[in-house]
Amino acid sequence: MMNDKNSQKIVDIIQNWARKHSIWVLAYGTGCGAIEIPPTMTSRYDAERLGVRGAATPRQADVLLITGYLTVKTMKRVIRVYEQMQDPKYVIGFGSCTINGGMYYDSYNTIKVLDKYLPVDVYINGCMPRPEAVLSGFAQLQKRIAEGRANGAQQYKDNLEWYRANQKKIIPNWIMPEYNW
Amino acid sequence: MREKATTLYIGPQHPGITGNMMVKVQVEGDTIVKARTEVGYLHRAFEKLQERRNWLQSFTLLCRFCVPEPDPVEESYARAVELLEGREVPERAKYIRVLMLELARIGSYMLWYGGQNGSLGLYTMGQWSVGDRNYILDLFEELTGGRVYHMYIWPGGVRRDLPEGFAEKVLRTMDYLEKRLKDYDDLMFDNTIFQKRTQGVGIISKEKAVEWGVVGPVLRGSGIKSDIRIDDPYEVYDKLDFIVPTHEGGDIWSRALVRRQEIRQSIRIIRQVIEQMPSGEYYNRIPNPHKWALPKGDAYARTEATRGEVGMYIVSDGGVHPRRIHFRGAAYVHGITLLEDLLIGENVADISAIMNSLGTCPPEIER
Amino acid sequence: MKEIKENIIQRIKANFADAAEKNDFKDNRVDFSVKKETIPSILFYLKDEMGFIHLSHISCVDWLEEGELEVVFIVWSPKDKIKVFVRTRLDRDNPVMDNVDMIWRQANTYEREMREMFGVQFTGLVAPEEFLLEDWQGPPPFRRDFDTAAYAEKTFWHRPGREDAQDVRETIANRDGEEIPDFAKKYSR
Amino acid sequence: METVLMDILGAVVTFLVAFVVGMTYGGLSRKITARVQNRKGPPWYQNFIDAFKLGFKKSAIHHGVMHHLGGAFLMVSSVMTLMIVPVLSHNNWFPNLNFQGDLIFLLYIMTFGPLGMALGAGQTGNPNSAIGVTRGLSQMVGFEIPWVLALVALMIQYHTTSITGLMAAQAHSGTWLMFSSPFAFIAAVMAMLGMFRYSPFDIVGAPTELASGPVSENGGKYLFVMMSSGSVFTFAKLTLYVDLFMGGADNLLILLVKTFALYLIPMLYGMTTPRYRTEQAVRWFWGWPSFFGLLAILQAVIF
User: Fold this and answer.
1) What is the pTM assigned to this prediction?
2) Residue range A19-170 in CATH 3.40.50.12280
3) Which secondary structure element, helix H or strand E, spans residue A158, and what is its range?
4) Which has more confidence, A1 or B147?
5) How many CB atoms lie within 10 A of CB C147?
6) Is chain C touching chain D, with at least 3 CB–CB pairs below 8 Å?
């Protein structure tokens, strides 16, 4: 029944519509970008009207919002959190420092290019991005989901060795469970 | 007995934690028997990076030290540089700086309203106050061009003059906030459950507060009248009329009351500043920053922020780059040692509330 | 204020022979340099006898050229409204000094950070080895001979594009006085 | 044979109605909360989208059999409660499997779900879940006292242990039980605050304390099952209250009006209060609500 290509397409459209309108963001402020998340979630900007809502644990979340630079120590936790999240999952890189290091380009403790370590679906630039920019980032993610192009998680699975090699290069003491789903 | 304890990791990914840090607690039932903090998730080595930048380029890094309230950090740095160089600041710039600092104080307390009540489950309060905080950020945006990071209080004065009609806007916003504060009081301080949750929780006695070097509203919540604006006055605070509220309890409730009354005092200060503000120059211009060298020596300046005393220790070797910049965060002293001690014997439900009431700010600890 | 400052210097000099003072500051500041062995006793004296109950700051400066590390304690007296700097120099190759966290509890945190960032060893400091860094293998990073840019270049990926507009940067860096380069005039206030 | 088929069909319809109404109430609650908080808020059907999305999510977590069964226990408990509670009187589409003594059975079955959930949460090995479960059970011990007292008072007063019996008593006397036994109603409504787990009694899944407590290891389909069983349970409980205290309902519209009016009580109260600590919550339930429950029993015994 459902193996038919056309019906699969219809199912995809329905699924993507639901995913698009219900984005649960993991409440993990990894950097100073977390300061603009409360205004985004509260009145005036109110992201909940777009279906964006906070989730308390990685198991329930759809979107990992990397709010700013990642130090090496946080990076280890973020990889763990990302791998605990359930498919389909997306990553938003928030702020200039996730794109090219921003003003921390010469720091010994922060990573500079996020998409070498985690698959990023949408980048929001600025330091710090305004709530409008955050909302537009979510809108961009919604567009990509609806078109079925937000497939960072699949990319991560396909290129797991490459990502792992990059991650292990900066994390010297790698004691983590294997990624198995 | 100790074997029965469950280990609970509050953070780094946890909705109740302030910022990005970890508290590892061991609980027996609901009571904490041991707490260990772990920080370093936000360490960007600012002070190392500033040694590679010149004295003015450091400013872009400064305001990232503590995001809820960046202005006192800028103020400390600007004043330390002026002290070292002997640079005069125009009178008008001093008033504008005080205006800026007090606006930042109110903005930070509005965010604290959200954090404190969110940790106790009263989400409506946070939605109101963080929403209203946008009006203060609007003022910042008009004045400096940025909502969160201002880079406005510079050595030698401020970066630009007040725009036309700005003072009226500030006064209108203050009137609005005063009206809203009544609503906040009805929702929060008159609430029996809020009182039950906060009174007698996280008590810091007077002696302990002194011994552990606690500063700011936490110290005033323990009944000690201490405020750098009065004790070691900077800018024009000695010409302004305001009081320093204290409360004896030393618990979350007392600290909340102190913060509540300080918003009232900040509004008072802002009104006075706008009334008394002289006209004239606002900026004693510095030379080309790439060639701007400071004399050899060191200086230390400190400012009263919402979390307490923030200080900036700068050392110059006579060059265009700083020899060393060291920031003293207010949360630095109580975020680790005091928190570990304070949490023992408390209920596991109160961890988040206690951290919020102390004003723990991890980026300030780790920098 | 002048008399209070003089009084403080008198009392310290009477009790600590090796204290060298500096008192040419316009604000409420007095500066003492002592040997590293004197640090705990002078801090105890300042706190218990003279009312400097508040430890404002502890900092460490690396004087690479002189081969020394300088540790600075800043204490504050709420009664006299005076801040006192107590500084000492350590040998850069073997920086060891006494732990002072029994005087002020918060000194523990400062010492942990100094141990990690500068490699200063405090005898008798009880705290976990790691503070801000995790699995760090290089030298203490805040020492001046550690080059953070080279380390970052070597360790992390970099996105190309930062090389742009070098000529503009150089023009701005090399200008003299107040005049503004031609291309920047239209943006100027 | 005909009637059995009809009953099965009716059960499915009842379940669907309960699901839709419960979800809608959840969405309306989010909307109203947002309006109180000066926000526009999500559309009222947001919960349906969330549920669909959760249903489509992949779940690759395996913590053991009990973890899988935890949601099932909840669902079974909710559906059984729904089946026993008479939804509409005199309507063939909403059959009920009520029997003599179903009120006592109901007391048991309503605690069955949380217990199963507790087993499931225990197996995930997450300490947050374990603490959340202990909190949930303590709170249940708290609100069960006034709730049982209120029900026992009704049983004594009207000499019946079935819900239909109580409904018949209301129809017979012409007044709702909330007027004829006000103390029982007050005690029951106070217990309801705890049942619905809105603030100040949302201690089980308190995000800032326990990172959503027992469900912290459950995402995707597990959460979908819990969300839908929660919606069904909400509807069943509201209907039970309407049946017991507000004379039941003859058609769906009246039922919706009555249930929503009841639903507003915990929701609006929750918006303006912080959360209790566990022992404070239990103490609160054993204070005034239990006192009113005792008054209700006194009233039942004396009159």
Assistant:
1) 0.88
2) yes
3) helix A152-158
4) B147
5) 14
6) no
